[in-house]
C-alpha cells in the first residue's frame, strides 16, 4: 500500500532557481512529516520536518509546506545549488510511529 | 557518538542460503526501523521496533523474513532461503523515541543473491 507518494521521479533545475519537490499522502492519521536526502551509496540523511499542527517550517534555504486538507506537502529549496543534487524522500509517521517513505525524486541542479 | 552501524556492508550469497544482517542503533534510541531499497525503487518499509512493544511486522514481504531486537539495542534481520528478488540495499534506522523525531540511517547492507 503506497501511503506516501512522490509522483515525480525526477526534477531538473538551474542553479540559483527554486526547486519544488512534491509529496502526497493518503493516511489521515499521519501527523509528522519529514524530508530526507540521499546520495548514492549512502544512507538517507534527515533534512527538515514538520508537525501537523504547522503549515510551514523553514530552515535556511529549505522550507517545507504542509496542506493537511489536500494531504500534500512540498519542499522548496531556494536558491538551488549543484550540491543539492540528490534523491529526496518524503516520509510520514502517525499514531503508531512507524515511518513510511515515498519513492523518491531525483533532483539535478545544473550549474 | 557513533551513528547507526550496519554489517556487513556488502553480502553476496547463493540462492537458497540464509543471511543475517545486523544493525547497531545509536545508543539510547528506542525506535528501530528496517527498510529495503531495490534497484530504482523507493524505501520499502519492512519492520519497526519501539521499546518493549510488539514490533510492527506489517512490511515483511514473506515468512522468509524475520527480525529480532535483543535487549532493546542490536537488531538482526534474517532472510531464509534467499531468492534473487531479495537483492536490494537493506537500510536500518533508529530514532530517539519514534514519536515526532527524525530517524538516523546506517549506510545499508547491499545484498546480492546469485
**How big is the Rg of chain A?**
13 Å
Major β-sheet profile of chain B: 6 strands, mixed
Roughly what is the average pLDDT of chain A, rounded to an integer?
94
Shape of chain B: globular
> For the terminal residues of chain B, how far apart are their CA atoms?
37 Å
Number of strands of chain B: 10
**Chain-averaged pLDDT of chain B:** 93
What class would the helix/strand composition of chain A place it in? mainly beta
**Biggest sheet features of chain A:** 6 strands, mixed
Oligomer: heterodimer
Alpha-beta content class of chain B: mainly beta
Please count the beta strands of chain A (DSSP E, at least 2 residues each). 11
Structure notes:
The complex is a heterodimer of chains A (111) and B (114). With 111 residues, chain A is mainly beta. Chain A contains no helices and eleven strands. Chain A has strands at 4-5, 10-14, 19-25, 32-38, 45-51, 56-59, 62-67, 72-77, 86-93, 99-101, 105-110. Chain B has 114 residues and is an all-beta fold. Chain B is globular, with a radius of gyration of 13 Å. In chain B, 0% of the residues lie in helices and 46% in strands. The mean pLDDT of chain B is 93. The A-B interface holds A 6, 31-32, 34, 36, 41-46, 49, 51, 89, 91, 93, 96-104 and B 4, 31, 33, 35, 41-43, 45, 48, 50, 56, 58, 91, 93, 98-100, 102-108.
Any descriptors?
heterodimer, A: 111 residues, six-stranded mixed sheet, 55% strand, B: 114 residues, four-stranded antiparallel sheet
Amino acid at each position: 500500500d503506497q501511503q506516501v507518494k512522490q509522483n515525480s521521479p525526477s526534477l531538473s533545475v538551474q542553479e540559483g532557481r527554486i526547486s519544488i519537490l512534491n509529496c502526497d499522502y493518503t493516511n489521515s492519521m499521519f501527523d509528522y512529516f519529514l524530508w530526507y536526502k540521499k546520495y548514492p551509496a549512502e544512507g538517507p540523511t534527515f533534512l527538515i520536518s514538520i508537525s501537523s499542527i504547522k503549515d510551514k517550517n523553514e530552515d535556511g534555504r529549505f522550507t517545507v509546506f504542509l496542506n493537511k486538507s489536500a494531504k500534500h506537502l512540498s519542499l522548496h529549496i531556494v536558491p538551488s545549488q549543484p550540491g543539492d543534487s540528490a534523491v529526496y524522500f518524503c516520509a510520514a509517521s502517525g499514531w503508531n510511529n512507524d515511518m513510511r517513505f515515498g519513492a523518491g525524486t531525483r533532483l539535478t541542479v545544473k550549474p | 557518538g557513533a551513528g547507526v552501524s550496519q554489517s556487513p556492508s556488502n553480502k553476496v550469497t547463493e540462492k537458497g542460503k540464509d543471511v543475517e544482517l545486523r544493525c547497531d542503533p545509536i545508543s539510547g534510541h528506542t525506535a528501530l526501523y528496517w527498510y529495503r531499497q531495490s534497484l530504482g525503487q523507493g524505501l520499502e518499509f519492512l519492520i519497526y521496533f519501539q521499546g518493549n512493544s510488539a514490533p510492527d511486522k506489517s512490511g515483511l514481504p514473506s515468512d522468509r523474513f524475520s527480525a529480532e531486537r535483543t535487549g532493546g539495542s542490536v537488531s538482526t534481520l534474517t532472510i531464509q532461503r534467499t531468492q534473487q528478488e531479495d537483492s536490494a540495499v537493506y537500510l536500518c534506522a533508529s530514532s530517539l523515541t519514534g514519536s515526532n523525531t527524525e530517524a538516523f540511517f546506517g549506510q545499508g547492507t547491499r545484498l546480492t543473491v546469485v
